[in-house]
Write a structure and sequence with these properties.
The protein has 171 residues and is α/β, with parallel strands linked by helices. It contains four helices and eleven strands, in the order ββββαβααβαβββββ. It has helices at residues 45-54, 72-75, 78-85, 93-99, and strands at 3-5, 8-10, 25-28, 34-37, 62-67, 88-92, 120-122, 127-128, 136-138, 155-158, 161-163. The N and C termini lie far apart (33 Å).
Length: 171
C-alpha cells in the first residue's frame, strides 16, 4: 500500500510474515520534510529504505521519527533509521525512559534490543509539528481496543495508536 490519505503513507514490506502485522507510517510535512512514525522490527530499515527509494524520498528528508511505544515491533529499526536519516526522535516520557534502557523494562512485550536516547521527550498533550495540514497531539495511553480521542484539528497519537484528523480552519 502506498498513500492511504493525502500525505499519509503506510510503509509496506515491514511485516516479517503474514501471521504478524506491524505498521510504519510516513507523514508528509511542510516543505520537503517527512515524519516517520515507528520503525518496525529489527531489519525493517531495509524495507523502509526501499520504500523511500521507490517514492523518491531522500532518507535525509525524514526529519522526525515519532515512536508510539517501546515494543520492539515499533522500535526495532530505530537506531539504523536515525543513522540513515539523521532525524530527531520523539516519544512520550514514559516510553522514552524504557527505550533508553533506564529503567530496564520488564513488562509485557519486548523492549528494544539496543537502548536509544530519545531527543525530544514529550508529555501528555504535547504536540509535534508533523504532516502539512495538522499537528500530532500526544495523548495518554488508552486501554487495548479503545479508539483514541481525536481533536478535529490534529492527528492524535496515544500509546500504540494514531488517527488522522484534518484541520478545518486556520488557527
Amino acid at each position: 500500500m502506498v498513500e492511504i490519505l493525502p500525505g499519509v503513507h503506510l510503509v509496506d514490506g515491514v511485516d516479517p510474515s503474514p501471521d504478524f502485522t506491524t505498521h510504519v507510517y510516513l507523514l508528509k510535512d511542510r516543505g520537503n520534510s517527512w515524519t516517520l512514525i515507528d520503525t518496525g522490527l529489527p531489519g525493517s530499515d531495509v524495507p523502509i529504505d526501499a520504500y523511500l527509494t521507490r517514492m523518491r524520498i531522500p532518507p535525509t528528508s525524514v526529519k522526525k521519527i515519532l515512536i508510539t511505544h517501546l515494543h520492539r515491533d515499533h522500535t526495532g529499526g530505530l537506531q539504523r533509521m536515525i543513522e540513515r536519516t539523521k532525524a530527531r526522535t520523539f516519544s512520550h516520557w514514559i516510553e522514552a525512559a524504557y527505550i533508553a534502557g533506564k529503567p530496564a523494562y520488564d513488562g509485557p512485550g519486548s523492549p528494544p534490543l539496543e537502548p536509544v536516547v530519545i531527543d525530544e521527550v514529550l508529555k501528555d498533550g504535547d504536540t509535534v509539528d508533523a504532516a502539512a495540514a495538522s499537528s500530532t497531539t500526544i495523548l495518554p495511553a488508552t486501554p487495548p481496543g479503545t479508539p483514541p480521542s481525536t481533536n478535529p484539528s490534529a492527528s492524535s497519537c496515544s500509546v500504540g495508536t494514531c488517527s488522522s484528523g484534518r484541520r478545518t480552519g486556520s488557527s
